[in-house]
Specification:
Blueprint (H helix, E strand, L loop, with lengths): L2 H26 L5 E6 L4 E7 L4 H8 L3 H27 L3 E9 L4 E8 L15
Antiparallel strand pairs: 1-2, 2-4, 3-4
Helix pairs in contact: 1-3
Length: 131
Amino acid sequence: MSETHATQVGQTLAAVSNAIVKLHKEQFGRGPTHARSDFAGRDTLVCTLDDALLPAERAMVDSGRTDRVRESRTDLQAATADLFIRAIEDIIGRKVRAFASAIDPAPGVVFEIFALHSEADTRTDGRGPVA
């Protein structure tokens, strides 16, 4: 990988992290204190968010109600999935074929995972990914 390409990938991943943090702030009222995005192979993008729980969620974890935190976060994430997918597609320039959000409540870590359509799925006629 050339230095220029590595710089471009780094800038793209930073843009992904910033967008995901912004969406968390807008949609959940508070963003994580740290975010890192990485490609996991050619077609998978993972964003790891630390210290992502709301104060009320932290209180629930402290009282042993981690399952309720996991369940409510899953519901919230499903309701806002289109916003997250659209942001990633705009930044990466590829279509998302699947999106999943996971949380480990005790340490307050959230994972946003995007499976992208393969670049090989792009049509040669310029009309985008094969449906």
